[in-house]
Amino acid sequence: MPTMIRKSFSVPPLGCNCSILGDPVTKRAIVIDPGGAHERILREVQQLGLTVTHILHTHAHLDHFLASGEMKKATGATLCLHLEDRPLWEMLEVQCQMFGVPYVPVPLPDYWLSDEEKISVGNMEGIALHTPGHTPGSMSFHFPDEQLVLAGDTLFRGSIGRTDLWGGDFEAIEASIRERLYTLADATVVITGHGPETEIGIEKATNAFVRT
Ligand SMILES: [Zn+2]
Ligand SMILES: [Zn+2]
């Protein structure tokens, strides 16, 4: 089986990790969490020789979708989000004011993702997991063949996402991590929403907030 093309890098204004996942055979790709710097993301996509079909969001905090409008304009890709984060998406201007970030209007998502929904990257397949707690509509994207999960701000190396913002819920994030993420294979690489990657097995043993 060919290996998925993957490039992850942090983008301004708040250092969110944006990822490009591509199918080496069909050259189709998805972008996850284009939080800013759309020109750089588009340049990376072009250098990899990929065509973006979908733009997925782990959640609707401003730093994870501020460049989604520009990305959609440039690629025509479908914007996808869990419905429970629609209120947050719609209050982007308020979020920008609160974090002192210049407001850029972003159109509403085109498609609402459900729990356990299949994610297509060309002919490669993943699954969307509803992992609420950091926000009501937080999602993680699992690619079993690649032993890879993109956990957004639900799980960080050594830490977990904050639950003191709009709709945050500590009990929910703890349940999401225990029941949806820690049940994945230990060797699964976790691309986090901010900062370095980790692995499920490492977090189960050493995470400061949720351990098994
Ligand atoms: Zn974030
Ligand atoms: Zn967040």
Describe the structure.
This protein has 212 residues and is of the alpha/beta class. Helices cover 24% and strands 30% of the residues. It has six helices and 14 strands. Strand 11 and strand 12 form a beta hairpin. The model has no long low-confidence stretch (mean pLDDT 97). The structure holds zinc ion (2 copies). The site of one zinc ion (ZN) has 7 residues, from loops.
Structural class: alpha/beta
Bound molecules: zinc ion
Mean pLDDT: 97
Shape: globular
Which stretches are poorly predicted, pLDDT < 50 over at least 5 residues? none
Number of H/I helices: 6
CA-based gyration radius: 16 Å
- Give a short account of the largest sheet: 6 strands, mixed
How are the strands of the largest sheet arranged?
Answer: 1-2-3-4-5-6
Tally the beta strands: 14
Kindly state the percentage of residues in helix. 10-25%
Q: SSE order in H/E notation?
A: EEEHEHEHHEEEEEEEHEEH
State which percent range the strand residues make up. 25-35%
